[in-house]
Amino acid sequence: MSETPYPQRTAVSLAASGVPVLPLRRGKVPFGNCSACADNACGGRPNMKTPGPCRCPGVCHAWAAATTDPAVIVSPPWAAAWRRAVCVGYHPGGAGLTVVDLDDADAIAWARNVLPATRTVPTARGEHWIYRGAMRSVNAVRPGVDIKSTMAYARYLGPGTGTMTDLPDAVRALAVKESSPVRPAPHAVAVPTGAGSGECPHRTPTYLDRGIAMAEQRITEASSAVHATVYRTFLAVLSRHGQCGCLTDAHVARLFTAAQRRGETARHCTDAWTNARTTLGL
Predict the structure, then answer these.
(1) What kind of architecture, by CATH, is found in domain 93-180?
(2) DSSP string, 176-206
(3) Closest CA to 25 of 80, 94, 82
(4) Beta bridge partners of 67
(5) End-to-end CA gap in the chain
(6) Do 120 and 165 meet the contact criterion of CB atoms below 8 Å apart?
(7) Burial of residue 28, with CB atoms counted within 10 A of its CB: 0-12 exposed, 13-18 middle, 19 or more buried
(8) Which of 116, 111, 119 is nearest to 163 (CA)?
(9) DSSP label at 166?
């Protein structure tokens, strides 16, 4: 019997210790949906921030599919995904943990001045600071700083060094204080939503809502080229949903909020939306 590949071996060990794990493919992203779950056929919200009712036995639903059962990891269809995996992801909130993801030297310097010391893990560009305790996940709470805990996944990069400490109020406060102002003000979304008169392609209101949810996901999971991703996502939404007039300011606000949580400004969101409409002739 051949030796278990490194990612799978690590995953089995983590799962046995109570850490929910999932395989990540190239680009450090989860595996896509199986044919049964494609286009939300399963009724869930694939790879999104809330799990649906899907009971797919595979790795379709990102953090929501993360498992602590070693037997699942070594059995089909998970085993096939682990053979293709390039690294291990885990659900911090499911393990009762919070990861403060520091992307660069400036973010690390800020953390050392503001946050209590805890277990640290080096990353390619910065560090993960891991605290005991779960909270909601928020991206871009300040330059170079993301919070990954519930309804999110982080890359496992080793056990780290130092003693893990309890989640401090200073980190919880970031999610409250820093995430609220990034929501677009009413005038920030006062752009034409594409009130066209074309035939409505939406079978049900849920169809449109799922399209917006998938667009939010695409923006949220962008690991690079965020500007371009936001524009392309806006373009895709408008090309599919902009002709019939079903889009509302509430839909646009959801997209703007997702973009601003990735560091975009309200002005850039408005410009990207307007440019996408112009490109499509809306």
Answers:
(1) 2-Layer Sandwich (3.30)
(2) HHHHGGGSPPGGGG-S------SPP--SSHH
(3) 82
(4) 21
(5) 60
(6) no
(7) middle
(8) 119
(9) B
Q: pLDDT tens across 90-126, in order?
A: 999 999 999 999 999 999 999 999 999 999 999 999 9
In angstroms, rounded to a whole number, what is the distance separating the alpha carbons of residues 23 and 111?
A: 29
Cβ(24)–Cβ(30) under 8 Å? Answer: yes
User: Domain map of the chain by residue range?
Assistant: 6-89, 93-180, 186-280
pLDDT in tens, 34-50: 888 876 677 665 444 44
CA-wise closest residue to 21 among 11, 29, 13, 30: 11
Lowest average pLDDT, out of 94-98, 144-148, 180-184, 252-256, goes to 180-184
Quote the CA–CA distance of 123 and 161 in Å, as a whole number.
Answer: 13
Which tokens in the block code for residue 209? 């809502």
Sequence letter at residue 136: R
For 21, list phi and psi in degrees, rounded to 5: -120, 160
* pTM exceeding the 0.70 threshold for the entire prediction: no
The pLDDT, as a whole number, for residue 184 is: 40
